[in-house]
Amino acid sequence: MPTVAVLCDPPREGVVLADLAATTPLSAAEVADLYAAMCADVLRAVEASASDLLVNYRPDEALPDGTDEPNEPEDAESAVRALADAALDDPGAARYEVQVGSTFAARMGNTVTHLLDTEEARSVAVVEPTAPFLARGDLDGMAMKLRRSDVVLGPTSGGRVHYAGFASPVDFEDADTPPAIGTLTDRAHDAGHDVDFGPMAPVVETREDLVGALSLLRARRRAGREVPTRTAACLDDLGLEPVADDGDLALSKPDIDSD
After folding, report:
1. Is 149 helix (H, G, I), strand (E, B) or coil?
2. What is the reported pTM?
3. What's the confidence (pLDDT) of residue 66?
4. What are the residues facing 96 on neighbouring strands?
5. CATH code assigned at 132
6. What mean pLDDT comes out for the span 193-216?
7. Measured in whole angstroms, how far is the alpha carbon of residue 129 from the centre of its chain?
8. Which domain holds residue 180?
9. What are the tens digits of pLDDT across the range 56-69?
10. What is the distance between the alpha carbons of residues 151 and 164, in angstroms, rounded to a whole number?
């Protein structure tokens, strides 16, 4: 059975999505709540798919400087497990492992190589926890592609990827160098591997990503299509709306402190 690894961090202020807190009306606490909601939707999509779920987390000592605070109520593992327990129908079926590596590319490479070479997994995919619109059908479709191609990539905006699947390993050193989709394709080609691609899907890591995700969420609801339930509920609670601003889109958030 294929394995999907979700590389996630504990949803703490200052640890996750710092760019969103710096460039949007959201506070660090609200950004952490949004991250938790998106991660929960991703975990649930993987659980509903035909793949095994691996929750891969960074330990406290590997988190950004200044975030390993003694007053944190939970360690990183406990925080991630609590998030997964609330999201999954069968939390006991998920597997949990500590990420190994000093960079994202190293952590991705160590996870994929270990599972392919040591545990003889048929294929391994790494999925971003910030891709809440990924659905079970998307994941199963890309897993099917991995039966025919050595590498399958799920593109998102800015040359990034929301999904990187491997039936055979590549050279993972600095493999996420922007544009990641080009770098990973080059590495696969250098290794003599066939490459295929999955559907475009948004990730939410920047202000522009959030504007796009809100617009897509509104459109899908209007059309009666499925939306990521936890992410949608969180954004509803936050009251964010995309609004026109001199031919562009900006974010509007109600001031709950005003009269």
Report:
1. coil
2. 0.93
3. 47
4. 55
5. 3.90.550.10
6. 96
7. 2
8. 3-204
9. 999 999 898 644 45
10. 7
pLDDT at residue 32, as a whole number: 97
Q: How far apart are CA 176 and CA 104, in angstroms?
A: 8
In a domain, 32, yes or no: yes
Sheet holding 124-127, edge to edge: 95-98, 52-57, 3-8, 124-127, 161-166, 151-155, 195-197
User: What is the C-alpha to C-alpha distance for residues 38 and 146, in angstroms, rounded to an integer?
Assistant: 25
Work out the mean pLDDT of the chain and round it to a whole number. Answer: 92
CB proximity list for 126: less than 8 A, separation 6 or greater: 4, 5, 7, 108, 111, 112, 163, 164, 165
Mean pLDDT of 148-153: 98
Q: How large is the average pLDDT for residues 176-197?
A: 98
Does 255 map to a domain?
no
Tally of domains in the chain: 1
CA dist., res. 183 & res. 186, Å (int): 5
Strands 248-252 and 241-245: antiparallel
Which residues on adjacent β-strands are paired with residue 244?
249
Beta strand ranges found along 9-139 (DSSP E): 52-57, 95-98, 124-127
